[in-house]
Amino acid sequence: MKKTIYLFAAISLFLLGSCSSDDDAAPEDFVVAFENPSLSFSAEEHSKDVKLVFSTTAPQDGTITINFTATNATYGENEDFVTTPNALNDKITVDFSTGDEETSFNFSKLKDAIEGNEKSITFSIQSISIENGFTSGNTTIQVAFEETAALGGSMQPQVGGPNEPNQVYIDLSSHTETVIQRDTWDLGFYSGNEFRVILNGSLYMAATELDQTNIDAVTEEDVTDLQAKVAVGTFNPANIEYIDAPDGDLEGTAISEISAEDSENKVYLVNLGYEIGTDTPEAGREDVSGQPRGWMKIKVLRSEDTYTLQYAPLESDSHTEVTITKNETYNFQYFSLKNEEEVVAQPEQKEWDFLFTVFTNEIPGNGSYGYADFIVTNKFDNVQAYQVETSTKAYADFAADDIDETLFSVDQRAIGSNWRNGGGPTSLPSLKENVYFILKDTEANIYKIRFTAFVDESGVRGNPALEYTLL
Q1: What is the DSSP secondary structure assignment for residue 288, as one 8-state letter?
Q2: Among candidates 309, 307, 314, 310, which has minimal Cα distance to 293?
Q3: Which CATH architecture has domain 2-148?
Q4: What b/e readout covers 283-308, taking b as 16+ CB neighbours within 10 angstroms?
Q5: Could you tell me the pTM of the whole model?
Q6: What angle do CA 196, 201, 203 make, to 5 degrees?
Q7: Per residue in 284-337, pLDDT tens?
Q8: Domain limits, the chain
Q9: Contact, 257 vs 188, CB < 8 A?
Q10: What pLDDT digit, counting tens, does each position of 218-262 carry?
């Protein structure tokens, strides 16, 4: 299984060296490990499953014996924590059945840690009941009662296959992902000091300012000549002005900063881009763009800490108006022109590090262009990253002493498409196995990240996987 391949990359090398030849017909080794080396609880969380994964499907029914040691915590219903199944003499016995690919036990936190005191449990795999069963890799896991930076782990972001319908926000320190369908929003309204509006580049949206301040006076005939130009992927270098700056700099939004003077804010022609693709392409290819979503005209005003959005179809001589209030909990407030509603389309500030998404980038000399399988770092909360070649230092060997602070980039494309090979008319895109990335998160934790899959076992795109380690 794919998850086994990347979780046990190091184990595989050992197994290949120790297995006998096909002629010997030796039973296949059954390797067990914790899915991740650490787990933590927020103040609001009280129960989590602790997962154990297998290198192959279980050949028969069996059990895994796990022991634990506690730091400033006691087991028991009236104490600090309990498990399901119950523990006896600081040991848990977890069952599995023939054909299982994984198993788990439940950990329940009954009392929070006292501020300033570490409170944690370390679980260790002691034994596996079946022949040829052993443990390697993540043989222990530390469960912390308070939020601490994850020591590392493996993830399979739910991008959604070759149509890549989802934007997936990854937070390494909490080992979490947030999945948002990428057509749920069209415009993002900045909650910081500036009054800026962004476009949904995952849909290949574009916009241009019109020489008009009255939205109701703009007609389809007025913009007919512009429509062929205001688009992504026209291979005209000038079309870069119709998209947001790919590096994430708010000074480069397609929609100018909203003026405090209403008379200075112009109407914009907005290309809504493309629907999410629905066709099933051949393995290794993508179909992220479906039918055109059409056009709208908008105008944005400001007052104190609010935006006023006016919007209408091109053929309309009247408009709808909504008020959108800045919310400092989030970097942006999002609005769907299609569904005519405000939506939450991004985790709270500092609650994500990078994002898997379809993306509007720039090809120098050719203007804006659409990219699938793109990774965007959280520039607005100062997440930074840089790339390392394996020829310079092997991933396994890279340690904290190797970090070069001068290489960190605030460009939101610091990872971008650099984790994969682009492919072409006669070749399929593929995983780059000779690079990895160093990332500094919103709390200045520094991780090394290696991408371990680009497609699934059947070669279907939009199925990435990664592993990471806290440095």
Answers
A1: -
A2: 314
A3: Sandwich (2.60)
A4: ebbbbbbeeebebbbbbbbbeeeebb
A5: 0.80
A6: 135
A7: 999 999 999 999 999 999 999 999 999 999 999 999 999 999 999 999 999 999
A8: 2-148, 155-181+349-470, 187-338
A9: no
A10: 999 999 999 999 999 999 999 999 999 999 999 999 999 999 999
